[in-house]
Structures are given as structure tokens and as C-alpha cells.
Design a protein that fits this description.
17% strand; 4-stranded antiparallel sheet
Amino acid sequence: MSLALATLLYEWRRYTAAIVALAFSGLLILAQVGMFTGIVIGISASIDRSRANIMILPAKMESLLSSGSGSLPARLQPQIYMHPEVVEVASWDNDGGRWVNRPQDGKKAVTTFVNVNMVDTRPGSATLPVDYSEATRVALLEPYAVAIDESQLKRLGVKLGDSASLNGKTVHVRAILQGYPDLNNASVTMSRDTLRLMGMATKNGKTGPLMVQIKDPSRAEIVRDQLNASAGGAYRAWTREELGEKNRNAIMEEQIIGVFITFSVFLAFLIGVGITSQTLRGAILSSIKEFASLRALGVGMGSLRIIVMELSWWVGVVGLAATALFTFGVYLLATNNGVPMGFPMPWIVGVSILLLIISGASGL
């Protein structure tokens, strides 16, 4: 065991402040990244868990978060069906509307705007998420039935079995979902038939983005390339995984979010270097007699400097472990309250490198 590691183990109390500072510096960044990524997870949950292997978007639409219309000409559906490996093509139509609950005595009245999502209730359909239970599928067969994520119930002022008004028409809460939160506007899910009854289906020869199911999911990239080759600029095909990755990256490219993240990284660096360097300095000064003894025994200044740098590196490693622990705690707290969070691997690697740089800079 090295002298630096032994010092950290036996005098850990002196370095606790530095470790906590590093941990909270990492948490400051990862918590925001997790929250923003969670927004995308909530928006694209019904696609990510669908049976579709390929998504068809307008040619200039780079993600589901892109501004502008995501509608496509309805004539594209039979064109996609012409590919021999395509099993099903279904439009992913959605809309929004004014939601008004019908509170019981003493309950709070809620009037808000909701996003309206759609699924096909046919067994095995491309738009039907794989984690929908059979009871949920059957419940949505009822005209004007809706399903709501459990995290949205209080927000919308309803419970299972209640009725409410959506764009002036009565809908009934017939199923409760798990894992489909929406941090922006609350959302409800209904069948395609109910969407048509509500007058929300896309019209004028337009449909929403297309969800494509193929015979062999392992050939999704090959089929994607073949569809793009025959698109003629009318659309762009994405694999489901590719589009999910693009969605997660797109939100980080938003200007205001980029400002938040940049400021957080700068603040985390200042806090980490400031507190960690002062803690290490205090710990070294408190052990100056021990270092003087080593110097008297013939240990060179270069070796002593290496000990200090190694000590700061070990503080960084322990700080990384503390960051992981704190971040996991925040993740559990968020998910237990219906708030999705996601931590892309590039950000985890980047924050890890940043914390090691902070500890190294503090050691210097």
C-alpha cells in the first residue's frame, strides 16, 4: 500500500470536505443532465417501447424535439409497404387539448392543456408499447377511454374510473400507466379510434411520423438504408435506437439548456478546485511534521510532491465513488416520484474526467 493511500485511509476525516466537494460538483452537473434527458425519455417513451423498428420522419426533421411540423403525406404509407421486409406501417398521430376534470365534493378543480398520444389497440401492432398489459389494451378499446400515467393523476385531478372533459367531449379514465411521465404538459393516451371520434386525427392528406415494423429486427439498419435510398428527399428513415440517441442529444443542443450546463460545469470546477485545494492544503500543513521527518530521512522534494499528487488523485477517486452514490440516491428519489432521469454514458465519462482534473489541479 502506498503512503498516500495509507494517509487517506487513516486520516480520512481530514479529507472528507474535499471528497464531499467533489461529489457535489459532479452531482450538480449529472442531476441537470439527468433531468433534461428525462424530459426526452418521457416524450419518446411510447416510441422507445413500441414494436416498431424504424421511424419515418420528414427529411429535414432531425429529432422529435425539432421545431416545425412532423407531418408526412399519407401517400407515403403504401410506398413504405412496397418494401418486401416491411410488416406494418402505422402513423404516430398526436394532438393536444383543454382538459377539465370533474371534481367530487371538496376536490380541486383542474383546467389545463394536455398532450394526447395515440396507440393502435390491435394485438401486436407497431404502435402498441410492449409493456402495455392486456387489461390496458382491452380498456382502451372502449370509445372515449383514456389511459394516464400514475404520476399525472394528481396533476390532472382524476383517478381510475373518473370522467373528465377534453376539448368539450367526455372521456373516461380506464387504465393507469407506469413509466410514461411528461414533465412539460401532462399527457393522456387513447386509441386511434377514440382519437378520430375526438376529431384529433391528422387530416388533409397528412399523417404523423410513421412507425415501421419489419420481419427481422436485426436487419433494421439495412432496411433503413434501403428506404432512404428510395426516398427521393421525401422523408428520412431512422432506426428506433438511432432516433432515441438523436433525441437525447438534441435537447442538450438547445441554447438555453446549453447555457445551464456550461454554467454548471464552470461553477462545479470553481467549487471543486476551491474547496478541494484548501482542504488538501490544510491536511498537508497539519501533517508538516511527518513530511519534515521524511525529508530528514533523505526523501527528496520530488518524491514528496509525488506523494501529494497521488493523495489528491486518491481523493478524486473516492470523490467519484461518492458522486455515483449521491447520483443514484437522486435517481431513486426522482423515479419514486414519477420523474424520469437518464444519464448518457458520454456525460458520465466526461464528469468523471472533470472530477479527476479538479483533484489534480487541487494537488498542484
